[in-house]
Specification:
The chain is mainly α. It contains 10 helices and no strands. The protein has one domain.
Length: 251
């Protein structure tokens, strides 16, 4: 059987019934609003309010605060994308490109090899040319890998972020934007730009890496018509990054 990444026509077909502009506004409001709400409630919980978490040690308060933030900003986004995909008469699995089921191991391996070539080459060049930018993007993740946060960090960065971001941006939003006359790629560029904008804390090199990686993830979706492909590739990238940082700390 031919590999769908390299042979045959692209399998992506937009099924959303959302007006494109309305979907764009809804996606931005959902992502920003749930992040803000999660941050505010997480900070409140982690602040040590006597009535709310009396007697809980500071380390566990921090852990609880992070869990509250993640529950709202990641689980909430997935729930919104799933709920929103069914509005206006949409069939959720089709809108989110989940109707094809799990991809084959061979296709996943091919996708990961391509992603490693793209991002590996980019990061190697950045590290050689501007190591200061590379290190500035890595530094914030180091404290997140310390106890008691490291299991939550692995769960959030390795699973929660790929699921929530792909469901919302390359699932819910892209399916609506692709209804425009320009078709898939203008819609993918816009959805990818919006997704990248939520990584504004990175350096210019880090933001560009996110955008380049997002284009590759969009290509995977375009070729296969299966959202699980970018989800798996996104998760593998994040888990690999955290594992390398934990096992081989950079100077």
């Amino acid at each position: 059987m031919a590999n769908p990444l390299l042979a045959g026509p692209p399998r992506y077909t937009a099924h959303s019934a959302w007006p494109p502009l309305v979907a764009l506004v809804a996606a931005v409001v959902a992502q920003a609003g749930l992040q803000l709400l999660g941050g505010v409630l997480g900070a409140y919980v982690g602040g040590g309010d006597a009535q709310l978490i009396s007697g809980i040690p500071a380390a566990k308060q921090l852990l609880l605060a992070v869990l509250v933030f993640l529950a709202l900003s990641q689980v909430g986004v997935v729930a919104f994308a799933w709920w929103g995909a069914g509005l206006f008469g949409g069939e959720r699995r089709a809108v989110l490109q989940l109707q094809r089921g799990a991809p084959s191991v061979r296709d996943v391996v091919a996708a990961l090899v391509g992603l490693a070539l793209v991002l590996g080459t980019y990061n190697a060049l950045v590290y050689l040319i501007r190591p200061d930018l590379f290190m500035s993007d890595v530094a914030p993740f180091r404290p997140m890998l310390e106890a008691p946060l490291w299991p939550v960090t692995m769960l959030a960065v390795g699973i929660g972020a790929p699921l929530s971001e792909e469901f919302l941006f390359r699932g819910f939003l892209l399916s609506a934007l692709a209804r425009w006359r320009g078709g898939f790629w203008p819609a993918a560029l816009l959805a990818n730009a919006v997704w990248t904008s939520f990584h504004f804390g990175y350096s210019i090199a880090g933001v560009l890496e996110v955008f380049v990686g997002g284009l590759y993830l969009s290509w995977l979706l375009w070729r296969t018509g299966n959202l699980w492909m970018p989800i798996i590739a996104h998760a593998a990238t994040n888990i690999f990054f955290l594992a390398v940082l934990a096992l081989y700390p950079l100077p």
